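Q: Hi! First time asking for a complex rather than a single chain. Here are the components, and I think there are two in total. Is that enough to go on?
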Amino acid sequence: MSDTPVDFDAPQNNAGAAARPPRATDPLAAINASPAVGDGGADMVQLLTPEGQRVPNATYDPIIGALTDDELRGFYRDLVLIRRVDTEATALQRQGELGIWASLLGQEAAQVGAGRALRPQDYAFPSYREHGVAWCRGVDPMNLLGLFRGVNHGGWDPHEKNFHLYTIVIGAQALHATGYAMAIQRDGDVGTDDPDRDAAVISFFGDGATSQGDVNEALVFAGVNHAPVVFFCQNNQWAISVPNEKQIPSPLYQRSSGFGFPGVRVDGNDILAVYAVSKTALDHARSGQGPTFIEAFTYRMGAHTTSDDPTKYRVSAEVEVWKHRDPIERFKAWLVREGIANRTFFDQVEAEADELAASVRKRCLAMEDPEPTAMFDHVYVEEHPLIEAEREQLRTYLASFEGSH
Amino acid sequence: MTATTSSTARQTMTIARGINSGLRAAMEKDPKVLLMGEDIGKLGGVFRVTEGLQKDFGEDRVIDTPLAEAGIVGTAIGMALRGYRPVIEIQFDGFVYPAFDHIVSQVAKMRARSLGAVTLPLVIRIPVGGGIGAVEHHSESNEAYFTHTAGLRVVCCANAEDAYWMIQQAIETDDPVIFYEPKRRYWDKGEVDTSAPQRGLYESRIVKEGSDLTLLAYGPMVKTCLQAAQVAEEEGRSLEVIDLRSLSPLDLPALIGSTQRTGRVVIVHEAPTFGGLGGEIAARLTESCFYHLEAPIMRVGGYNVPYPPSRLEEDFLPDLDRVLDTVDKSLSY
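A: Yes, that's all I need. Here is the structure of the assembled complex.
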């Protein structure tokens, strides 16, 4: 125990819970006082400024230095393609082809940076907005669209790409991830120094989820078990309409210290920083050194979902501030400055994105509704008399309309 | 099999010991089976059902978890996703609610969500029911929440032999199973044939044959109903007693058969009657056996109030006299 008396009046480094801003009539004053335009503070790991200037960092520079130009161009391609899929999905929702869509706009770097730090044997547990991680794991975007179109509740085989089904109940997946990590420990697939064997788990959730008991219980279970799991929180500043200041009593990246493991805040709009921090945390987990909490400081540029109306609770000037921190623009500026990519490459990626979007649209429109009796198909593994009886009941009922008008 | 082997395969044990031995057998058979719960290690659980298992199978397979039910079921889901078969102990019925979301929204629905790609072979053991003079939250019968949830199977043992075999069958099932244990009967002894199970997990059992009326019960009420049938017999009435064993799915063909034979049915459970399993059984039997019925199907259950303080529980719980009272009503039609 420290002998230093606690100074309750000391200023807290707390971008997530700034003092309540004074009521201001001047809109600009309100923006400046708003916690949602905070830049993450001095503790935030940033390797690329919003202008695309490289910030030296002794800890993480070797990780970035080890990336090939091909890999770096691949990052850019991921960012652009997944944004294009996202834009197309939003359009498809507006045209009535999807019931709803949860846009990842603005969070591409957080997701691709973390997604590309994973190895094939690692396992990712997403919420419902991790389209960028799904992309990195090789999950066909049509699987995601199927869920939002309402033809299934997900329906992909999570074991195929080690990418779990989308979890819509907020924060529940943090516990599933922790349990999966505990199973990895029991399989002995941690700390063997075999890079193809040692595995880690990553759990994605948002700032709102950190209020859930499930997430806090997951931190307890992970902490006491020293489980190989990385908690990746995308703090996009808004839990639907509720800002950080009403949700988060102390900075998120500091929270893990209460659970006995390290936490780090990273610039979620800086793909290099996210990649380096995620890779470090995953290596740490795979080598048997336990969990890490990552707070990716980012911003939800769009609505919570297509059903949401953010003009009711946040001002457009705040969005403008974050536009200048766009994850793709800053990375592109750096690639150009470093001579890693040129116009031909960017044009190719654009063309590929257009092609992908057209294919997503075409395949979405071609997606057929399942047969009504499909709802009975996968409820149980073993035969269940009630299911069999009701399947037959519906089949007979539907058949009774055949031939009638 | 020789006579010697079959005689050594018959042992007398309590229901608690039956589950303990069943768990041990399942763990010996399949290294992927592991136990999770509060105080289940050195202590052996508050009812000692897991006594000695951590000592023999180690802390990695008999896991003393942090005190958080959602955390237990949530992490068990993750373990099951990687091929383990977790058997969870919920300490008391009233403490399952913090885990309710994971059971109902995740465990029950994961297979349908994945179109059959993912199975979660979890068993969630819950000591159930009252009659032990406990404080609040320790005496509830909450089976209807789970029988109402598609994707779960719900079973309840009532004797030592079923305790021994049903827990093993539940663990072998690839579907998630809620496994209820009648806590006030934990120390009731019975004979167990450990050579082979006598019936499948979802089959009901005629405990006593009869011709005038069918008593349907499960868990702690099976014994009560059997006693009622014995008393009724002295008065010249022949009651059939059926132990449901499986609450979801129901063994409806057997229940329909008995209803058609006797024409009268009384369903007995500790749970409050409104919205309870008895109502569902009554509706289904009425739909199937309307012209065989001599009297409305009746229920004896807990009253529709929060479980009362223990000094009042004898008035709340169905007992011999309340069962016989309802039997009289049914027979008066």
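A: The beta strands of chain A are 123-125, 201-206, 229-235, 238-239, 242-243, 263-267, 292-297. Let me know if you'd like any chain examined more closely.
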